[in-house]
Amino acid sequence: MLDTTRTLAPSTRPLPTARVPLAAETVLVAAFSTYLTLLTWAIVWKLRLPHVGESLSPVKWVPFAATAVFGPSAPAEVAANFLVFVPLGLLLGVLWPRRAWWSGTLLIAAISTTYEVLQFVLAVGAADITDVIANTTGGAVGLALVACAQTRSRFGAREVLQRAGGFALLVALIVSALAVVSLTP
């Protein structure tokens, strides 16, 4: 069999990727699953007991600006929407490193849009295009941070995020347990 990697120009050679040990992969998948569960609880039910509303809620189609029904987007809320999706980009970038940046960004946009549609259908909050824009931007920044870490870090983004993911998973589980305990009558 002919080895074609030697004939490729340096810029077109595929980057070597080390296989992550199963335990590290398990921690990252657990952190990702826990993050998505908490994100769903925070976005759809605003950290309250899950419920379904009475009627369909409104949709804000004009980003950032005030409309007849909605006021302008609060900068703190836009910033929170941005920040809460950065970990999604980080985790996606680490779990699926060979994914193109644009496909990762499209996946993040689809996840954000799904949350907004759920809020609309379940009548638990207003669906807002500003949220989709801020969430997608935050996730794209997370993807970019992983790409930078992979090219600039001698340790690699996976190793750093695996340790951070394990710690974040522990903190998330503790916070979730405390929140559930505080919600019970």
UniProtKB/TrEMBL annotation:
Keywords: Membrane, Transmembrane, Transmembrane helix. Residues 33-147 form the VanZ-like domain. InterPro entries: Teicoplanin_resist-assoc, VanZ-like. It comes from the Bacteria. It holds the Pfam family VanZ. The chain crosses the membrane at residues 20-44, 78-97, 104-126, 132-152, 164-183. The keyword Transmembrane applies. The keyword Transcription regulation does not apply. It comes from Leucobacter aridicollis. This is Glycopeptide antibiotics resistance protein.
